[in-house]
């Protein structure tokens, strides 16, 4: 179940080099972590979120309703352009996201999901912002702690249900 997703290692390295802004093990319902890296013609996104904030529970699905909730969440990440909108002028297209879910028993009854999304952009010079629609897809989500790496600089910021746009 622990499939290695190449970009995660890269992002963790970036995060820890900055002093561990995205600390492993941080788990607060309603709050997710998002790393955004714009480099060359690529925009790479790495999301780490409490499962509770996406599907409403953190145990293995126990019934049809819960199985459907997990499936719907995975399906939405297969169409990353419905969750994230990079600058239109950059003409970015997404590859379906890799979603990693915890398997088996989860520690302390809490569980995080991880997703890695990559966009490739035809006009990367025009890539200057990112609109995040996760709040529409997942009403339980309240805040996103963002680590942004763009133009050779790294910065931290926060998005909320009212403020959904990153610019650099
Ligand atoms: Zn939890």
Q: Return the average pLDDT rounded to an integer.
A: 86
The unreliable regions are 1-24
The N- to C-terminal Cα distance equals 36 Å
Compute the number of structural domains. 1
Structural class: alpha+beta
Estimate percent helicity: 10-25%
The kinds of small molecule bound in this structure are:
zinc ion
How many distinct helices? 4
Shape type: globular
Instruction: Trace the largest sheet across and list its strands.
Output: 4-5-2-1-7-8
Rg over alpha carbons: 15 Å
How would you characterize this protein structure?
The protein has 168 residues and is of the alpha+beta class. 21% of the residues lie in helices and 38% in strands. The chain has one domain. Strands 4-5-2-1-7-8 form a six-stranded mixed beta sheet, sandwiched between helices. The radius of gyration is 15 Å and the shape is globular. The N and C termini lie far apart (36 Å). The N terminus is likely disordered. Bound molecules: zinc ion. Zinc ion binds next to loops.
